[in-house]
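Q: For a teaching handout, I want to show students what a protein-ligand complex looks like in token form. Below are the inputs, and the small molecule is magnesium ion. Please produce the holo structure.
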Amino acid sequence: MLDVMNPETKFALDAVHQAALLVRQVQVEMVTPALTKDDRSPVTVADFASQAWVSHLLSKSFPNDPLVAEEDAAELRPAEGADTLEQVTKFVRRLIPEAAPESVCDWIDYGGEDVAARYWTLDPIDGTKGFLRGDQYAVALALVVDGQVQIGVLGCPHLSDAYRPDFGGPGSLVIGARGQGAWTTSIESPGDFARLEVSRISDASQARILRSVESGHTNVGQIDQFALALGAQAEPVRLDSQAKYAVLAAGGGELYLRLLSPSRTDYREKIWDQAAGSLILEEAGGKISDLSGKRLDFTPGRSLINNRGVLASNELLHSAAIQALRQVGA
Ligand code: AMP
Ligand code: MG
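A: Here is the structure, written as tokens, with magnesium ion included.
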């Protein structure tokens, strides 16, 4: 069972729940039809507000724990950043009424720590393109102790039962706690947690493959070759953010590939992009490794420099997928 009274679990659920509601509100208020295609200001404001809030709550809840988070306040501190900072502060005040621009910057920079024996890692908005398009995005927070993810929480404001009956609409909180399983609850009224389990499909021809929407974050041609080598029939399903891990954990797919983009073969995954989702998947009975089958190493720093890409599965299809990856030279 999930121990929701555990202090770390309680903090992580509360932090991500409030952050997810806040960023959803930024989206409702700022992503309007008048927004030009290149205007990224809503996601910038939401990203910073989410990180400021989670940092603030962590500093109150576990003042000795370092936070390794994606953003920093460098662009907000100079005069040119004042308008954005004002907007960020306006949203942060909905959760922390006493927030001032200076303290908001300090909270954001609280996330500039290095990995340690025990640390938290945060992606304040994973799937920024999905956020702007109105597709999937997630707030992702994880606790890593001695290289093992202990708690992973995703707040997915658009993840609903369109993907799996387990996800009640219109948004989901998803948690994995080591040894306690993977669970989901509604973002509107968290409380009743439903357990997540991966799909039992072991026939490769029936495998549903998940991939990024952004073709620059993977290798689309190689995914098609992979599907052919594996014998998978269905078209890959495209989703933004770590919502893919939640869908896999709920049995809404069998495989998820992060192949190396041909234009960025040196790219190494970031810890905040993988930690929370990886535990949710494992606790639902799935398996995660890099493309060669190596376990993900969350110890060396902000990037997973000891790994190349990611393969995530329902476990049953993992070794067949590794074989197919070798066949296509991934
Ligand atoms: P997705 O939603 O699956 O497209 O993944 C989003 C994440 O991809 C972002 O949070 C980025 O940190 C990460 N990303 C950025 N560039 C790359 C790249 N070249 N290859 C893989 N992932 C990337
Ligand atoms: Mg991200």
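A: Two things your students might notice: Residues 7-30 form the longest helix (24 residues). The first strand starts at residue 67 and ends at 69.
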